[in-house]
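The freezer alarm interrupted the setup, so I double-checked each line after restarting. Inputs confirmed:
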Amino acid sequence: MISLKTEDFIKDSIINLIPYKVNEIGHNNSLKLDANESNYILGKAIKRRYANFIKDTLINLYPDSSSKKLLNILEKLYGIKSKNFIFGNGSDELISIILLSLRKDVAVNIPSPSFSMYDIIARYNDLNTNFIKLDKKSFDLPANMASRQNIYLKNIYFFSYPNNPTGNHFNDGIIKKLLENKNNIVVIDEAYLFFSDKKSFIQYITEYDNLIVLKTFSKIGLAGLRFGMLFAGDNLINEFKKIKLPYNINSLTLSSIEFFLNNFNEFDKNIKKTVSQRNKLYSVFKKIDFILPYPSDANFILIKLNDKKLKNKFDEFLKNNNIIIRNFTGNMGLFYRITIGTALQNKKLIGYLESFH
Ligand SMILES: Cc1ncc(COP(=O)(O)O)c(C=O)c1O
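Predicted 3D structure, all chains:
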């Protein structure tokens, strides 16, 4: 057998990459609260109507992302013409499309901590990344960041809005200032905006042609369908259209999204429940003495252990009780991100946390 010297073929930036870790799907006894999915399962009646709707999807043909029905629904929902959005196989794919399109002299600016895929994808595209240290307490952007000199002339900023994993929104004033500068592109990733009262940046798409807005249905109950959207002005979107693979969204997903957008009250109901559970959980967490919870506008809450001596014991406790939450490494080692579950899951979680000593 020949033995291929991979490093002679594969880019250093990929050889040196640490892959994104995906936890396995939990089993019946586990509390899987790690991936910011929705934990609400579709009811029987809507499931039946859904099955009936998608059963005639023509899977013998290539998918048609320009289906008028779907485009019309989305145009109405977001008030944006269909020429100004594209779909992605999850917003992950759209982040990838943005970063793939960039010249090497554009620096990628990423708040720290934030969603790890921005950095992972920037790295294997051999782009320079620059981490923006967030305020330790408020997790906001540094107040002077829009006016200070950046070492790179051209910059792209990725802002998860609200931010994953901290749960807060960044200061709108700073974002607007960055948008006012033609040497910047600003990406507002609204994956969690469904759970917040803030307004979408989509309203500014016609005003700023250096603004990109990302949306996804993953966090409200459709993670398995893999459907994200990218909104931008004519100049940028026309470049992204050139590199988007022609059939990136499969026919079943396209039909499903059309069905669920016409039945959105199912999700509205669950979003409201998640927000109310989040607020309840936050007040309970505040009373648990070994953790500090951070306020959140998303479908998760970030907590910090008050004492680093507890770290190993707490990790062991989570493992022994099949509690799967997101933990972090390095200077985030004492932090955990907990996805908001159903009322029953949250009750179980509280029971466990209150029994930890
Ligand atoms: C901020 C942020 N953006 C994008 C994504 C990816 O979403 P999608 O499932 O649409 O690829 C996530 C998922 O965790 C996220 O946290």
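Quick read of the result. The pocket of pyridoxal-5'-phosphate is lined by residues 36, 90-92, 115, 160, 164, 189, 191, 216, 218, 223, 228 (CB under 6 Å).
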